[in-house]
Amino acid sequence: MQKYRFFDFTSDIMFEAYGKDQKEMLENAAEALFSIICDIKKVEPNESMEIEVTSISIEELLYRSEEHTSELQSHSFIS
Fold first, then answer.
1. CB atoms within 10 A of CB 34
2. What is the spatial distance between Cα 21 and Cα 24, in angstroms, rounded to a whole number?
3. What is the pLDDT at residue 13?
4. Sign of CA dihedral 67, 8, 28, 46
5. What's the pTM?
6. Cα separations (Å) of 66 from 6, 77?
7. Three-state helix/strand/coil letters over the chain
8. What pLDDT, in 10s, does the model give residues 22-61?
9. Cα 9 to chain center, whole Å?
């Protein structure tokens, strides 16, 4: 199963993430986001981190998850 795919878009980056359930879809969306930031094939994981986010809709859950993941990266928790 494909994890995610990118769309051609002029002024922004768009992707669609897939998964057998919401948890896997959110994990794949986070991977898609980080594949934009860095070459994930060259990154070796040395730490695992769980992120807990609550929301009232799947759209908000995706937004909050990606926002939190981006904050971790920008604050150098993930380098």
1. 16
2. 5
3. 85
4. negative
5. 0.71
6. 16, 15
7. CCCEEEECCCCCCEEEECCCCHHHHHHHHHHHHHHHHCCHHHCCCCCCCCCCCCCCCHHHHHHHHHHHHHHHHHCCCCC
8. 889 988 988 898 888 888 888 787 777 777 888 899 888 8
9. 18
